[in-house]
DNA sequence: CGATTTTATCGTACAACGTACGAGTCAGTT
DNA sequence: AACTGACTCGTACGTTGTACGATAAAATCG
């Protein structure tokens, strides 16, 4: 997916094989990539992408602003790491049995949606950033699950992308309604005022109340049905 | 949808009813909202959201940077206007006959997708911005078309959102692959390297070549089928 | 052991950006 | 001639990301 090419790397020696952490062990390392990313996620959760400033993040970590740049090449990389962190997936209680494919797919996709809704900034950032490892992991899993379900090789990519597109689209839509919670009532009024000129929309209250979860699940079932029967 | 509430307004007297333009008429107005927005779209098309700077836009217009602020409250509003401009829809050669509902829906949705792909920044910006009038117009049209197709009132919102979600998701995915064209080969290599650890993905070349248009149309047909039969 | 390298932190400074402020120009009206 | 409103723009400020060393502490080596 998009994003600025391959992306820079931090100055810190790349930890290719995970074994020893060079400097930690005894004294408190005070700063660590994990802590930085975790705190960045906190900030993003609290105030959205606009609230993530390097100085503020450093403050909250009790460090100098430039100290972050030992662990992270630049802000862009930091955001990528935060995004990736949010998309981790531990997996379902996967039996691996062929007939369970459907509930495993649903589990993963609903978990994914839930992750994005817990961190609404992630949904709106995803389109502009590169595909992270955890996303690829989910795609890989989905791919295997669908293959087990009997989707033909020739249809596999189309099936995966259909599901991906659906989940992304549904979640972005849903999340962006949540995002405007800064002043829920003002946004509400704005929508009400705007939709006055659109009678059908107004009558159906399309923009106002929706059973988002129900709509999501309905569409998902629908897609899954179609993908295996075709 | 999201966005920062109601949004500020420019200093220029709001042109509520479209009749007279106060200052134009004879001498060249040199700057106008239309020209500003159109040029902003040019800049966005050429270099993406990162390339749109107020100073640069003013330069290209042969004006001082601060002159823009007479016509536009701030950059955010400008981006909203550019977004809205890009989503204009002139309508199909709509017959209004009930049996043509399907091709009219398809026409609008594919036109919408095409608009976003002509301006890839629009797809990735949409999730973070407010719903503009032209988007609402499309939703209104879609709503009427589906009603004509016989979709029950109770299912109407779910149907609209399903289609919307699908189009948004599919287009964002597609556009974000295009976005990484700054160095197409570098991105390509990155994806190839990354997907090494994901055998199923690699084997199916999920990330590399896809008949995007075909996949989009397939899923769309699929959704439309389901929405009316249910 | 002392010398040297690696790991990590951070203060200062700078360039780029959005935009507040207010001064300016020009046309039309009274 | 005085005034008003539409429009333009130069200067300047605050906020950002981050380049560039200057540190110090720990690890390694002779």
Summarize this, please?
With 230 residues, chain A is mostly helical. The first copy, chain A, folds into 2 domains: 33-86, Arc Repressor Mutant, subunit A (Orthogonal Bundle), CATH 1.10.10.60; 98-229, Orthogonal Bundle (Tetracycline Repressor, domain 2), CATH 1.10.357. The first copy, chain A, is built from 11 helices and no strands.
User: In CATH terms, what is the architecture of the largest domain in chain A?
Assistant: Orthogonal Bundle
Number of helical elements of chain A: 11
How many domains would you count in the coordinates of chain A? 2
If interface size is counted as residues with C-beta under 8 Å from the partner's C-beta, which chains form the largest one?
A-B, 69 and 68 residues
Describe the structure.
- 2 copies of one chain form a homodimer.
- By secondary structure, chain A is mainly α.
- Chain A has 2 domains: 33-86, Homeodomain-like (Arc Repressor Mutant, subunit A), CATH 1.10.10.60; 98-229, Orthogonal Bundle (Tetracycline Repressor, domain 2), CATH 1.10.357.
- Chain A is 61% helix and 0% strand.
- Chain A contains 11 helices and no strands.
- The first copy, chain A, has helices spanning 33-47, 54-60, 68-71, 75-86, 101-118, 120-125, 133-148, 153-179, 184-194, 199-204, 212-229.
- In chain A, helix 5 (101-118) runs antiparallel to helix 7 and helix 8 runs antiparallel to helix 11.
- The longest helix of chain A has 27 residues, at 153-179.
- Chain A starts with 32 loop residues before the first helix and ends with a helix.
- Mean pLDDT of chain A is 85; it is low at 17-27.
- Chain A binds a DNA duplex (30 and 30 nucleotides) through helix 2 and helix 3.
